[in-house]
Amino acid sequence: MAEYLASIFGTEKDKVNCSFYFKIGACRHGDRCSRLHNKPTFSQTVAMLNIYRNPQNSAQSMEGLTCNISDMEMQEHYDEFFEEVFTEMEEKYGEVEEMNVCDNLGDHLVGNVYVKFRNEEDAEKAVLDLNNRWFNGQPIHAELSPVTDFREACCHQYETGGCTRGGFCNFMHLKPISHDLRRQLYGRRRKSRQRARSRDRESGSRDRGRKAEHDHKRRRSRDRERSGRF
Ligand SMILES: [Zn+2]
Ligand SMILES: [Zn+2]
Fold this sequence. Notes:
The protein is 46% helix and 10% strand. By secondary structure, the chain is an alpha+beta fold. Bound molecules: zinc ion (ZN) (2 copies). Its main location: nucleus.
């Protein structure tokens, strides 16, 4: 029995725990949900609810107004927001592994920002501090989120451009940032990590200056590292 319960935990078959909260960290029933929302006490991920304001949505919701913001302006606006939040999270709280923003329209998902830190302690620190802060004239609501695997939480149809449920889909519609920004935010850190790693190795290697050999070794030890991890 215990095994059975463990195997269905957080799935649709689980009559006790809410599968949506478990996978997506948000459920449309909110506190009125008939199933349990098990709020994590530790997590790498912080959710800031309803933070991102999509200018296209606000324009559409004003009656009689047609939306005349171009897709390019939209992307610029979004990239600026993303960069600002991402940079601030890293400067104030610690290294960010991944950040995602929901493009959904349902109340429980609209504008949600999920920041997955490298360390749980940084996430904890961020939640405590963020709940005393304001963004765009609104108090921030931040909480630790059970979501760590965004592949499970996001809508795959949205990614291929064909979600029939549109903005009211209950899986995350994660709005992509531009390639340039992605390279700038994630690429730079990957490089600096690589640099740090090769520095460590260089200081331990005796035959400095024999770069070709060194590079060869580096590749080999990287392969070793890889195979050791699995
Ligand atoms: Zn629920
Ligand atoms: Zn969808």
